[in-house]
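Entry type: protein chain
Record version: 2
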Amino acid sequence: MIRRRRNWSWRRAAAGRDIVPSRVTVTHRAPRRSRQLARLFGTDRIHFGAPYNSISFTEDDVRVPLPRAQPGVDRILAQHAELVLAASRPVLGWLDRFRAVLTAAFRDGTVGLEEVACRLAVSPRTLQRRLSEHDTTWREQTERVRHELTLDLLHSTDLPLRAVAGRVGYSDVRVLRRAVRRWSGTTPGELRKAAPADRTG
């Protein structure tokens, strides 16, 4: 359901009717209070955890004539959109940045203390010290990210279990099965059956 808000009332003045985004994507996770963003953007159709930030409109809305628009208004609107997106991004803490880098390392198949430390431009010892300052360890964080990636692969793909195990750094399917049992008390196959049907290879 789209909610029209006064934050976007300038569009009525320019186009003669309300125009609201058909979709908004932001890269960060959903905040505890998302209503403020809904008021800001003028829509509840906000998707968090996206790979990029964007504000989308329908083609009809994009091409609507703007009889009252002043020259240069397109540049003003583009700048406004950039400011709105910038304001919606929270400042990532060090641990959030570390987890993002660690997740990328898993996806690239380069998981290792030295490799991740290099990506963060610190020494392995400094990395371990920073993790300790956040009351966690390298082992805890790799296990957490491995858990998240494993569940994502089981839920969103039809990859063979051997391929899933390889992608998350397990030596074979037996290790993967034991890990899934430890995390969820069930098997990889049962997790897949409980997942939505729209999966890719």
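Comment: Confidence is low (pLDDT under 50) at residues 1-10.
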